[in-house]
User: Fold this.
Amino acid sequence: MNILGVETSCDETSAAVVRDGTEILSNIVSSQVDLHRPYGGVVPELASRHHLEFIQPVIQEALHASRCTLSDIDGVAATYGPGLASSLLIGLNAAKGVAFTLNKPFLGINHLEAHLYSPLLSESSTLHASRFTLHDLFPMISLIVSGGHTILAHVTDIGWHEILGQTVDYAAGEAFDKVAKLLGLCYPGGPEVDRLAKQGNRAAIAFPRSMLDDPSFNFSFSGLKTSVLYYLKKNPNAVVADVCASFQEAVVDVLVGKTLRAARHTGVRAISASGGVSINSRFRERLAAECPRRNLRLFLASAQLCTDNAAMIAALAFHKLQRGAHSDWSLDVAPSIGLGTNSM
Ligand code: KG4
Ligand code: ZN
Assistant:
């Protein structure tokens, strides 16, 4: 079963063809980072105009790269939320148009739920060669860490999850971007901070580990950003690499600490992470060191599947369509929808 997926929730125009929920035949992503960089963040109107211009060629390229024609497509899926309303509308309507023309099933997908699935999509290529199936990997603790979200979830199967905690203020990626801005670095700041931190001293500055000892599984990053702001005001000649390394260590301590505690609390034997911040090299290094010590399996999405992409949309849609899910033509965008619970 070949599913065409479409993703336009923020600043990436993406289309993909995925076979049977596991095999990525194509995954085309047209990034708008260069377009938004001069503004230091995503400008919604520019984003939707770019989606409008690129959605058709990106879908065309996804079909071409997958060596499929429209007649090989068995279903169409698109992100319907959360995200920017004007951006979501472009992908959702393009996907509806394709499905309507082909007379094939159409399904709207929650972008956050697709992030939960993306590490398993990375894993599924190795699963092909082993006797395991995706269902053997559950239950697991899954962390979504992106520019817009920080969510810790207990996932018991595809489509079955419970939110354990989330950020009460900034998303982790937002904290990286804001601190990078304070340091005069380029947008998006996460990759820049990660790069500079490699040359810095992680123990140089004792930034706060907000909510690390709080019994909840929630996160807070605004106090940490304010601490960096005050530190820079007091120390205008601070070594930028040391600030990056110390700030990054504070974020990673909290992300890794809470994720491991959630695993202990629920008794799961596997952890996964997705979203742009999960590309962070120190985050990956720490999890890779801690998980084997605790006998936990670790699933991290490949870099291309960590950030926004349509392959995760198409892959999740396959599993849902197989269980009989479908959306009405009247499905509207849902810009502020959360991850929710147990969507199947
Ligand atoms: O998942 P994503 O591409 O888009 C959203 O859905 O938000 O995440 C983008 C976020 C940005 O805040 C960016 O600074 C951050 O991920 N990011 C990183 C790294 N690469 C991207 N943060 C820390 N370290 C990185 N290497
Ligand atoms: Zn995302």
